[in-house]
Specification:
The protein is α+β, with helices and mostly antiparallel strands. The chain has two domains: about 30 residues; about 120 residues, Immunoglobulin-like. Helix content is about 25%, strand content about 40%. The radius of gyration is 23 Å and the shape is elongated.
């Protein structure tokens, strides 16, 4: 092979790598949120702490944070229990809708504001949904549920 053939192959390989890198950069642009949901070790079992950070390169708007619960009745069957009226958000950093700049953290707690509803029997699976403006569906997070299950079962007996 001649030198021009090697140069053509080299150029094609480099151009392909640059195209792949540009696609990766394009896909990772925009607002991205990362959330960490924990339970306060000093608090009681029904309070969840939500830490949200915008890890993207553009501002994100948090539209809502919702708490709901799934009840596992059999291996795969789940029943949704609406908890919007029983739990509320509390914190000092503002409430949705809330704009988050790149790298900006936000913290809120979800705790019961009323008497808990009567839950059907089965294992409870808490779900925290964080909805941001540029996504069609919410981010769903499933925090550990051992303390929550114990707390709810103690209140429902």
């Amino acid at each position: 092979m001649s030198a021009s053939t090697y140069a053509a192959w080299w150029g094609a390989i480099v151009a392909t790598m640059v195209l792949v890198w540009d696609i990766i950069k394009w896909r990772s642009r925009g607002p991205r949120i990362k959330a960490n949901i924990t339970q306060d070790p000093d608090g009681y079992g029904a309070e969840f702490l939500v830490f949200v950070t915008n890890t993207g390169d553009l501002p994100a708007t948090i539209e809502s944070v919702k708490f709901r619960c799934l009840v596992r009745r059999a291996l795969v069957l789940r029943r949704d229990v609406d908890l919007n009226h029983s739990f509320s958000l509390s914190g000092n950093n503002g409430f949705p809708p809330l704009p988050l700049q790149p790298g900006e953290p936000w913290e809120v707690s979800i705790s019961p504001s009323r008497k808990l509803p009567q839950f059907p029997s089965g294992r409870l699976i808490p779900v925290v949904e964080v909805l941001e403006s540029h996504r069609k569906g919410p981010h769903r997070y499933y925090p550990k549920a051992d303390r929550f299950n114990a707390y709810v079962r103690s209140k429902n007996t």
